[in-house]
Specification:
The protein is mainly α and 196 residues long. It is 77% helix and 0% strand. The chain is extended.
Length: 196
Amino acid sequence: AIEGVIGPASATTATHGGAMVPTLALGIPGGLASSFLLSALILKGIAPGPTMLLPAEAGGQLPLVFALVWCTVIASAIGALIGLGSLSWVMRLARLRPALLFPVILTFVLIGTVGERHVTADLGVLLVLGGLGYAMATLKWPRAPLMLAFVLGPMVERRVILSSTLYGWSWVLRPTVLVLAAIAITLLLAGRRTSR
């Protein structure tokens, strides 16, 4: 399913450009890469914020902003060309038997697991989650909802705590929340009816 490859790749590419908006316009980093950019700009004596979007005559840095935008566009185009150029040999990798790729992938997984926090206890977590994933695949249980909950759960928890701290539990009855909840319930019921 090529959509499963194109969708996440497009979203990953789009986040870098989108993260530049709050970084340059408000001085708030929108991601890890933009926090490095923000630090570099501050080290160079450039203060990101609304004044950065003013023309150079008004004391702003608008030419620099446009240069950063064009750098992002050119980098995306070069990345697409590299992807097209390497497509033929990457397709050959997809034709390899999984048994040949397994040792290489396992090596990268182990390096990534230990290299993230340099804690060997993470290997135990890897084994438990790997066993859980294998059991779910064997029993034909969907694994995507678990992954979404694992990734989005901490973010949702932080936002709920922040909302309840600022507004109490009255935020649940705000119009935007009610509309989004109604849309979510409607989509859930429509999905159940379609699956039947």
